[in-house]
Each structure stands twice: as structure tokens, then as C-alpha cells.
Amino acid sequence: MQPDDTPELRALYEGFEAMHLMPLWTQLGDLMPRHPKPKAVPHVWKWADLLPLAQTSGDLVPVGRGGERRAIGLANPGLGGHAYVSPTLWAAIQYLGPRETAPEHRHAQNAFRFVVEGEGVWTVVNGDPVRMSRGDLLLTPGWHFHGHHNDTDKPMAWIDGLDIPFAQQNDVGFFEFGSDRVTDYATPRFSRGERLWCHPGLRPLSGLRDTVASPIGAYRWEHTDRALTEQLLLEEEGQPATVEQGHAAIRYVNPTTGGDVMSTIRCEFHRLRAGTDTPPRRDVGSTVFQVFDGKGAAVIGGVTHKLDIGDIFVIPSWIPWSLQAETQFDLFRFSDAPIMERLNFMRSHVEMAET
Amino acid sequence: MQPDDTPELRALYEGFEAMHLMPLWTQLGDLMPRHPKPKAVPHVWKWADLLPLAQTSGDLVPVGRGGERRAIGLANPGLGGHAYVSPTLWAAIQYLGPRETAPEHRHAQNAFRFVVEGEGVWTVVNGDPVRMSRGDLLLTPGWHFHGHHNDTDKPMAWIDGLDIPFAQQNDVGFFEFGSDRVTDYATPRFSRGERLWCHPGLRPLSGLRDTVASPIGAYRWEHTDRALTEQLLLEEEGQPATVEQGHAAIRYVNPTTGGDVMSTIRCEFHRLRAGTDTPPRRDVGSTVFQVFDGKGAAVIGGVTHKLDIGDIFVIPSWIPWSLQAETQFDLFRFSDAPIMERLNFMRSHVEMAET
Amino acid sequence: MQPDDTPELRALYEGFEAMHLMPLWTQLGDLMPRHPKPKAVPHVWKWADLLPLAQTSGDLVPVGRGGERRAIGLANPGLGGHAYVSPTLWAAIQYLGPRETAPEHRHAQNAFRFVVEGEGVWTVVNGDPVRMSRGDLLLTPGWHFHGHHNDTDKPMAWIDGLDIPFAQQNDVGFFEFGSDRVTDYATPRFSRGERLWCHPGLRPLSGLRDTVASPIGAYRWEHTDRALTEQLLLEEEGQPATVEQGHAAIRYVNPTTGGDVMSTIRCEFHRLRAGTDTPPRRDVGSTVFQVFDGKGAAVIGGVTHKLDIGDIFVIPSWIPWSLQAETQFDLFRFSDAPIMERLNFMRSHVEMAET
Amino acid sequence: MQPDDTPELRALYEGFEAMHLMPLWTQLGDLMPRHPKPKAVPHVWKWADLLPLAQTSGDLVPVGRGGERRAIGLANPGLGGHAYVSPTLWAAIQYLGPRETAPEHRHAQNAFRFVVEGEGVWTVVNGDPVRMSRGDLLLTPGWHFHGHHNDTDKPMAWIDGLDIPFAQQNDVGFFEFGSDRVTDYATPRFSRGERLWCHPGLRPLSGLRDTVASPIGAYRWEHTDRALTEQLLLEEEGQPATVEQGHAAIRYVNPTTGGDVMSTIRCEFHRLRAGTDTPPRRDVGSTVFQVFDGKGAAVIGGVTHKLDIGDIFVIPSWIPWSLQAETQFDLFRFSDAPIMERLNFMRSHVEMAET
């Protein structure tokens, strides 16, 4: 239902252009689609590809002030050459060689690291050295100074997640350099934040003010693993504990509120029993998974992707997806769900099982 | 601090590209600037330019199903040909000819209208006919059906504000067609929402559940004007009432919470006494003003723009700005501040007056 | 199921007494009844009785520093000689003669006044003179200085509501004398709080911090009356607006939150169409009504009480009650519901209509 | 400033009495004191007195349906023969003989148990068997069914804390009998609630809805002890971790909100280094301590009370108090602070150290 192409209309449209105006009626479907039509596409990055490239970077690219981090961003093929895994999220593999230090800085962007393998690096967050080990989730919330150092003779790689694209798109980013070296080279087993906060259901009286981001710097694998194990055991005992049959899951939370660890990023860990297929679902917002253990597949937008340990995949907004566990299947997950929920844009649709 | 350009490095970078990867170290400054560096630029659209183009559109472009609205979007010159007034916000002039109807639809995007001149149109929101008159703010929150009809023999123009760019960028949009005609052609002076909710400090017992968006469909000019008048009178009486000397302002709020009218858009009205200059300030997030009455200027990023009634201007994130009132100066304002605040990205900086 | 009365048992019980101990097993039913068994009883105080006694007090009892107020408390017959209308609430008739002043003081207890007839008194709350007229609700939240003065040659009476019994029982009360005279004898039509806050849906930018109690000092009858009138008109038009058929009601709220006007006291106004009977209901907590206009009855605990203008009645916790409107029937109501809700003790039971 | 005692005044006062009215001016100071003047008094109950009486009760008093619990309430000497430790709180020693069962019931009142010595009893809360061991805090929030059984050949005693006086005074109590025997005689080391919820910073996806009371049924001593130990170690390392020098403390919280475990009762555990004296303070509301370990004293209202393990003491509202640690000194604490805070009555005053 567009107007006839007349000289008058052309003159009108030229007037629009001269005045920095654009009509709605010529572009309504693009601007306001019937449902989300993301430019981002589903994609899988294989750990077997990522790790060698990171290792080669370790050989060729120094880490230090200026470049700041030896991090390699996953660039969604649909997002036109930006290092964005989705419109809101950044995901990267970061690599630190033996005895290397990545200097301290801070930024408004929220960040976390998740360790799929290896150990030996400490991240120093606002002066608190935090050990990084397999299965751990480490937080560096917005405007916290942080740097990393490798205390060993072996390199280490992990993934970083941030809200860089969201911050970039919405012009909210601030950045500041800190110390060229990390401010504390101690290598304690537990960070001060953990020692103060990681006691279930107990809150220090010195920490009664709620915080925007979680005061826990490290969520340890041993706790995550035990929580998931208990859920599956409880399910076997006939107790309500899992999200759905064969599907255990935890959300990492801020103990001062019970809510998400950071304002823009949700972090979760999912465990499927061998043989479990999750029902197909769609959600508003984008999500990224990394396989932590086991073998299985993800069906995303109707396409089945076989998955191995370390593989990372992204599901853009409103694309249907499900998981299939060949063995017990462990996956770390992060998403922009806090943005969607806080702004009341969240919608989800879960398909009923055929019976 | 970039690595040397060697064949090995080139091979590495080619490997990145093949695998849909991009290094952080080559683009850090762009991805994580020291402070927000918006692509959007400050810009003023003159009402004297906008209105004639809207009138010509009224002659040449039909309004109806498909195009949906005779709305002309303000395209920020820095945003590369998108009809976005800022990365988050849409602003448009909409025009409805005598006896015309814009059909009903609904969308996840939040919308409002503000009327700088004219009358005679009713917007029908979820079946409730809402009169649109000079100085009124009218809400159509996300997923509310709405259409408009002009009950008179004169055309009418107004501005629309929405979160279309934010919804587009983050893939949260849903859209549904409704009735081709509005569902109620009645032209009551007050909408049902106003009759139920517009009694100061009184909440209907039938409406005890808090709502995501304000249940008030129309914020009338007479209330806004009176509130601002009282603030300036109280200031004259030596009472605390204004934001700063000579500067009265109200925020339109959701009476069920006292918070913003919608999840993503803040609406305010500001009145300056003649001769008042506001102190320069910067804020994270983008904001749009429309001059409602009086004469004055805006100093944005160091450039002074003279302003007349109806003129619309945008201030991108972290650009310094101030207002200067030649006469009593009335301005409607909307912004994405609820997004920034809910996600904890808000920062503001107000310059101290020189003494 | 009590133990046998043996010498050993008596010795045990004497041991308890000596050590300030008491067994649970001898008193369980009293301490933990099957449902609330209030000592307070339903009771009606007739305005025709109250007003003459208040007037005689005006003749015999001075008002001034020390006694502070010429207020006569309604003493629930079940509460053993305390001036408590219920275990949580205080209700009194207060009387101020021509040109009299009740001196300023402040206390932790929350207070309001409601005016069933008369005019001419201003209450000065934290220095802000607030006119008191028929149908108005006036707030003096905890720790606000307040005094009253009668600007006319006629006496005036009204009711006070406070949380004195709750404060007394739980040892939370503080009290401080202020000025012996009120600090401002001006008699403006509208208080400063109203001028700043009583614009529907509009919040002053100078008042963005939420307050524990409402910043509105006076809820005017004209607004209350209009809100109730509109609800009944909307009901006639077939629109959802009333609580139930023929029953309009508003809650007075804090505009900064949409919640109750004060932390411990809920205030509402109810209007029944002539002929309306409300369904019997029970609620945890106690509530007090004053008839403002019209004729009707209250059925409380199975007993029907005929009611005239000004009559005050109390309904203790979990006692069934309903209202019957002979004419259009207007009632002001206050209760301790915020206490019950904030502490998660609230329960309600509404009987279904017989069909 | 009372009126002259005249025949007219006597007639007026007789009129008041006949009409169930009482003047404010004769009782203002009692009703509205300058600061809280609690009837409750500070008092210490010695464990050496309590335990033998409980043991004798075990010999003489059966436990079963009707009496429900072999619990002996601490009756504040100032509260006139009520088994109330304060106007809001109930504290009791409960005793269960070998192989005994206390039958299941539920009530609106919130309850917890704290174990100062012994083991062998399981409390079954909504069907979930919860082990009770030394140093553990066990919750039975309002309207949860619960019963206890002793699985051993030794008796066990512990303390109960409830909000019985508050519920009684405000008429909010409901009570319902459940199973005469507990519904599950299993004796697992960890309850299902713990297995699901006691993983620091991890929330089960099956438990995303916030709960009024904590879903954790048992807060184990090993966690409490470790948290306090870490606080003191961090303090030694020069890190902020304790409330004040030498004073470590945790609050037991609801992991779904980070707030108090139940709506009316706050539970905390405090540990003082040997030699630590806390600064004198006053708080609105009443609090109860039980010495868990070590030796020390409490100075309450100017009187010093020497304390041994198991001793229980109460501090009424606004009475000054401080603690003195002779050895490392461990104390469990509960209070009505959530009531005071939720209703905005909380005030505290801490005396500055003399220098």
C-alpha cells in the first residue's frame, strides 16, 4: 500500500532526505517485524578450532598495555564484521602464556570468565586475587579494576563474556587504565570475596548493603557440580528439584538479592542426563552456551549441531532450540536475559511434547 | 602496541577470519572507548520544516493498513541512513487528515504521542478513546492495541516517540494487526483510564495490582501547566520546589509505582523562567526535547542552537548540554533513562557554576 | 492431655515460677488458637453521643502544653480499660474551640485526621499549614512536627487515627515537644505539599527520592468524591471500575510508591449504591469505619447495627462483617492492613453469594 | 496541666466511661512516652537452671497431641505472668526424651530452633526430615507443618524462638493439627531443602520464585563457624570483614532475597575475640541472645551479667547494652528487627568510644 510514484512524491522524498527525515510507511516491516528477525545467526565455534588459533596468538602477539588482552572475539556471521557474538553479547577465547601478566584496567562493561580447562591464572579484581580453575565462573562486574597473571609455566585459555555490543550500541561505555602489573601477585586458594560471602545462607553483617553486582568473585566448580548432582539425585528420589525430567540447572546469583550476578548478563549451568532431549523453545534475547563436559547436540532453528567439549554456540532471539544429551551433558550458559526482563521485553514459548 | 606484520601473523588473522573470529587487540579503542563516543550527533529539526513536509505527505500519501501510519521519522545524521533519532529512540511527526483513520495494531515497542499544537484526533488504546489536545502526553505502552481517528474537518499533526531502534537492535519486537477501523469512534472528553486513575493520591481498589506501564492514557496539559506554575510560585515564596533556581520540572509517572510511565522511555516537562541558564551537564543515554512554548536556545556540544516552538533536538550520550531561556521557556522531554538506570549504566556530570 | 497432679509436678511448676518460666502445654490453646480470637469486640460509637461529650470537654478542659490535645479516645470494651479501639489502632474525637491552638509536637506514632463535618482549623505539619475541611483526610506521619489552630469563631471536631496501641505494645514510641504555638498561622487554601504533589501522574523532579510516608498532607474531598462518582458511572457504562457490583472504593496512597500512605495504617473510602449489600468477609487485622454520609447498617459478627452520619465502628480480626446501604452510603475506613501485609500475616475470606 | 476537679468534670468523665471513651490528656505520658519505656525488663536465664527443669519435665510430663510440645517458655518478669520473653518474642527450652515424637501441627506463627548442645532429633518440616545438631539453626516458618522425633536413646534439649506474643497481641494466629506421628522417620544427614539450596551463590532453576521465608531448613554450624573464622582471619590480614574490631557476625538469610529468614524474626550469630568489648548501643525492638561458647558478660541497662554456655538473656527496646568477651565468645541472637524495619520504626544509637 505505497503511494504512486509521482514527481510530487519524489520531491517530497527528496525533501525528507534534505531534512534528515525518513517515512515510516516505506519501511514498516523492517522496523517493526511480526516477531524478532535477528540479523545474528545461529553458529557453532569448535573448541578444536579456537584453541590452536589462541595458541598461535600466544606465540605471535604480545600481551600488555594498549592491546590489554590476548582475546579473540567470536564474530557472529550475520553481524557484518563486528566481533559480536550477538547484538548484546561478546564472547571470546582469551589466552595467557606462562608467567605473563595482562595489565589492570576497568570499564563500565560487565565481564565474566569461565574456565573449560586448565588452571594457574589468577585474576585480580579490585585488588582481590581470584584463582581460575576448571569449571569456575569468575566475575569482573562493571567498573571493577582487573588484571590477570599466569603463575605457572604452562599457558592457559578460557572464555570471556561481556556486554560490549550492548554498551557500544547504546553509548554507555567508560574505560580507564589501571596498574601495568597486577596489584597483588599472591596466589591464594580462595579470594577474599569468597571467604566473606561463600557460606550458604549466611550474610556478613559488614555487608548488609545490597550491591548491583554479586560480591562473589568466584563460583567454584565443586559447588556447581554438587548442586547439579543433588538435583538429579532428588529427582531420582521422586522429589521436585529439576527444571524438567532429566534436566538439572542452576543460576549463578548475587547473594545480596537472589538475582542475577550482573545487571546485563545471566549465567547458568545446565546438566542433562544421558538420553535427555529438552523440548524446543524460543526466548526473546540471545544466549550462548559452552559445552563443559559430555557429548550431545543442539538443534537450533531446525539444524542439528553435534557438540564436543569446549564448543561454543549462540542462539539469537526467538530462534527455536533444544538440546540432546548423548552422554551426561554439562553446559555453561550465559545470556542477556536480565536486560529483557528488566525492560519487560521477555517472552518465552516452550513447545508441548507430542503424545 | 600491535604485533609485527609478519607472514605468520597474516596467516593467523586469515585463520581468524575463516573461523568467524576477530582479535580484541586491534580494535580495543573502538569497542571500549574511554567515554561514550556516540555515532549519533546533536541535531535540531525545525518545526517550520517538519510541518510543511507532513502536510504535503497528507496530500500525497494515503494512510491505512500496511503503511499503518503517516509518520515521518527523524533520522539522526550520524546514524547512517536509519530513521533513528538516537541509538535507542525513534521520534516522528505524524499527520492525520480530516476524518481519516489510522488502523489499529499493537507492537512490543512502547510508544507515546505529544501534541504541540492542534486537536480533534482521538487515539483508541485497548478500546478506550483518548482525546489528543495541545500539551497532552498520550501513552500507548507495549502490546496495547491502538489506532487513531480525526473527528474534525481539519488535519492534525503531533510527535510520536518510541523505542523502535532499541527494539530493532536487540531483537525484541513483535507486531500484530488489529481492526482496520478503530474499535470505538466515541469522542469523550476524558478517557476511561483518566476517569479511573487521575485523582491525585487516590488508587481505585479495583486496580491494586501494579502495572508495567502507566494505566493513565492521557496526561493533560492543564495538570502539567498547573504543576509547573505552582513550583515557580513556591520558589518565589522561598520554598524548595524547583530542580534548580528558575527551573521547574515534572516527570510523568506510573501511579501504581511512582516510577517511569514505561519500561524504556522517560517523559518529562521542563519550564524555565525567562533569563534562566541551566548549568552544563552530561548524562549517559540519549534524550530528545521539543519546544512547547517560548523562545530560547540549547547549547549542545558547545554549539548554540536558537529554538522556536515545535523545534525538536536530540542530545546523544555524554554530550554536554544546557538550556537558555529568552522568554519563559517550556519544553517537553523524553529519553532512554529508564534503560540506563535499570541496567545500572547511568552516570551524570553537572558542571559547577563559575564563581 | 495434662500430666497428673502429683507432688513432683507441683514442685516442678513451683520451680518454673521461681525461675520465670511457664510451660507451653498448660496454655497452648490460649497462646496459639485455631484462628484469631480477639479480646477486642465489635462496637459502635454513635456520633450523637460523641459530639456532645466533646463539646462539654471544650467547656471544661483547656488545651495546651502537657495535655497537648483535647482528644477523647474510643476504648474498645474488650480491651480492659485501655483507650485502644483495637490492639493496634487508636481512634479519637478531637475538639478545638474558637481561636484555640493545640501546640506543636512530634512522635514516632503515625497519625491522620478525618473530617466528618465542619471547617476552620489548620493543622501545621513540619511548618506547612494544611486546611481541614469536610471530607478531607489529613496526614501527620511519624516524627513530623504538628500543631493545630482554629482560625474561626466556631468550634470544630474531627477524628484522629493513630497506631498508638501498636507502638505502645511494641515499645517503639518516641515523643518530642515543639513550639507552644503553631509555627505558621497562615490559612492558605492549599498546603505546599498539595501544590507540589497533587497533580495526577506528575512527580516533581525535586522529589525523586521515595518517602516512607506520603508527601501529600491533605487528600481533599472533591477528589475523593469525583473518583467514586466516576467509578459508579463507569460501572453503569459496563466498564470494570468498582470492587464489586454497586461498591466503589479508593485507597489513599503515597504517590512516590503507589503504596499505603503510612507504614502502619491503611486509609480508604468506600461508597455503596443504595440497596447494595456487600458479601460477608473476614480479614486478619482490625479495621475502623466512620460513616460519612447516607444511611445503612453494618452486620458484624452476626449482629446488625444501624448507622447514621458520624458513627464509628470497629471490626476486630477475623470477625465476619458486611455492609448494607439503605441510601447511597459513604464510609471512611482505616485499618492496620499494612502491618499484616508487610509481615505476611494477611488472610482474607469472602463468602460466596448464595445462589 | 489537668483541668480542675469539679462536679461537671466528674460528670464528663463518667459520661466518657459510660460511652467507652477515655481522654488523652490524662494519660498522654503513658501512651506516648519520650522514648520507649518497656514493661519488659532485662533478664538472664541460666542454662544450669533451665536444663534440670527441662529434664524433670521429661520425667513428669508426656509429650503428645494436645500439649503438643514439652516446651517451657521464658517469662519476662516485667510482663505480668505471660510466657513472653519480650512483647514480640517467645523463647523456650524444649526437651524430647529418647525415642519420643512430638506430633505434627502448623501455625501462622514463625518458629525456629537453635541447638546449643546435643543431637539425635530430626524435625520434619513439610515432610522434609531435618537433622538437629549442635550449633545448627532450624527453621519452621509460618504455616509449615512440623513435628520432631528423637531417633536415639538419649534425650535432647534445644531452644525454640517464635513470634507468639506478637501474633497473640495482634490477633493473627491460626493453628492446625497434623499427623500424630511425624510423616517421615528417615534420618538423612542433610534435608532436601539443604541439598537443593545450600550451594553458595547458586539458585536452582526449579526455585526461581521468591519465597516469604527461607527455603533453607537448616543452617549448619560448620558453615557458621567457618564464616566467622574467615571474618576474623580477614581482619587480621587488614581487610574489612568484621562489624567492628574483634567482632565477627553473620545474619542468617533467605537466599531468594538476601533478606531475613522469616518476616518477623531476625537470626544472627556473633563471635567476639577474647578481650573485645562492644560499644554500648540501644535499638528499637527486643532481642534475645544465647551463649553458645566461651565466657563473657553482658552489660544491660548498666548492670553486668556474667555469662556461661547456654545462658539466655533478653534486652528490651531502647535499653543500652554491650558485650564483653573474656575468652573467644560465641553467641546466637534473634530479634524482632524485621518488624521494626518493615514498619519503619527502627532506630539505633551507638555510643562513641571515649578517647
Number of helices of chain A: 7
Rg result of chain A = 22 Å
Which residues of chain A sit in consecutive blocks of at least 5 with pLDDT less than 50?
A: none
Biggest interface and residues each: C-D, 94 and 94 residues
Protein name (chains A, B, C, D): Cupin domain-containing protein
InterPro entries (chains A, B, C, D): Cupin_2 (IPR013096), GDO-like (IPR047183), RmlC-like_jellyroll (IPR014710), RmlC_Cupin_sf (IPR011051)
Pfam family, one (chains A, B, C, D): Cupin_2
Keywords (chains A, B, C, D): Dioxygenase, Oxidoreductase
Describe it.
- 4 copies of one chain form a homotetramer.
- In chain A, the strands form 5 sheets. In chain A, strands 2-21-18-23-16-15 form a 6-stranded antiparallel sheet.
- Chain A has 7 helices and 24 strands.
- The first copy, chain A, is 18% helix and 33% strand.
- Chain A has one domain: Sandwich (Jelly Rolls), CATH 2.60.120.
- The mean pLDDT of chain A is 97.
- The first copy, chain A, has 355 residues and is an alpha+beta fold.
- The first copy, chain A, is globular and about 75 Å long.
- Chains in contact: A-B, A-D, B-C, C-D.
- Chains C and D meet through helix 1, strand 1, helix 3, strand 3 and helix 4 of C and helix 1, strand 1, helix 3, strand 3 and helix 4 of D.
Features:
homotetramer; 355 residues; alpha+beta; Jelly Rolls; 6-stranded antiparallel sheet; 7 helices; oxidoreductase (chains A, B, C, D); dioxygenase (chains A, B, C, D); Cupin_2 (chains A, B, C, D)
Annotate the secondary structure layout.
Four copies of one chain form a homotetramer.
Chain A lengths: L6 H12 L2 E3 L4 H4 L11 E3 L1 H14 L10 E4 L15 E7 L4 E7 L3 E4 L4 E7 L2 E6 L3 E4 L5 E5 L5 E7 L1 H7 L4 E3 L14 H6 L4 E3 L13 E2 L1 H16 L10 E6 L13 E7 L8 E3 L3 E7 L2 E5 L2 E5 L4 E4 L5 E5 L3 E7 L1 H6 L5 E3 L5
Antiparallel strand pairs in A: 2-21, 3-4, 4-11, 5-10, 5-12, 6-9, 6-11, 7-8, 7-10, 9-14, 15-16, 16-23, 17-24, 18-21, 18-23, 19-20, 19-22
InterPro entries (chains A, B, C, D): Cupin_2 (IPR013096), GDO-like (IPR047183), RmlC-like_jellyroll (IPR014710), RmlC_Cupin_sf (IPR011051)
Protein name (chains A, B, C, D): Cupin domain-containing protein
Keywords (chains A, B, C, D): Dioxygenase, Oxidoreductase
